[in-house]
Amino acid sequence: MTARILDFLASRRPEGPCLVVDLDVVRDNFNAFRHALPDTRIYYAVKANPAPEVLQLLADLGSSFDCASIPEIEMVLATGATADRISFGNTIKKERDVARALELGVNLFAVDCEAEVDKIARQAEATGTVGARVFCRILCDGAGAEWPLSRKFGCEPSMAAEVLEHAHRAGLTAYGISFHVGSQQANLDAWDGALSSASAIFGELAERGIQLKMVNLGGGFPTRYLKDVPATEAYGRSIDEAVRRHFGNHVPETIIEPGRGMVGGAGMIKAEVVLISKKHRDDEQRWVYLDIGKFGGLAETMEEAIRYPIRTRHDGSATAPCVLAGPTCDSADVLYEKTPYELPISLEIGDEVLIEGTGAYTTTYSAVAFNGFSPLKSYVI
Fold first, then answer.
1. Could you give all domains of the chain from N- to C-terminal order, each with its CATH number?
2. DSSP element (H, E) containing 245
């Protein structure tokens, strides 16, 4: 929560649930990453929050960008950032989107199988692109992450050398390895095992005459929610030590893809209590319904993985556990029930609540008019 956001809400009084993002926090976070990992290029994960103002600020600061689609690539190019600052980081791309990216000048692509390599090779030949670079994403243990990633993206490390050699034989530049240690990763040592795997793949390909150059360290850098998290500098030290431990004097190029860690703490959602009720007369547990839920931007409460700090005007008074839910006619739209949320007993219908740490993965997860509710409004200050 920042004074600028509170002043904005007090003076503008926006109607309905809305997200307010403070660009000063985004700038501070970018500078913290640059200071913590000075030899690593920053590729902001656009999917976290693609607000034009956020992208423009980061472009002006010199950030590069991790994009998942052609529209995201076009949004980045609209800032004036050049295509050599873009990575097409989605491992699941339509071939026509690969062609469009190449036409726009994008030259760095993620893959995790030979079929994806073939798409890029075919379109590089069709568009006359020479030297298109690919990096192979590998699976890694996401232990310690509050939002762990599934096996949807990446291949087993033992398969990566074959994928990259296939790219090399297809005329592409086998450029490096990537991985993701899981979102909201609190374990400073989470990168160590993946870097060990990456180093082994570098060595195996060198024996085949292919020199890899880059390790994409992914994202995973956290935002502070209800629990303290290590400082950015601590992540930087741990990662730098792990890189040098596994690569020795042959340190590769490195990039990171912060999303949540860049913008999560810069945003706060203003919402309203719509209803407070009980399920039977003797029930000691209240149900508190807000005008925003999973379909309005709080999808990361799924499985109660992300527990956002919630502030009210009654803070400091007695509290009791509540079930917190959204407003839609869908039984899945319950935010916290397995572990009820402590809220003030004096909370009333019509009270505003402030949900902190919501600058990332909220507007991008907001449904378009599900049950007729408008998408989450966003203000950038």
1. 89-258 (3.20.20.10), 265-380 (2.40.37.10)
2. helix 232-247
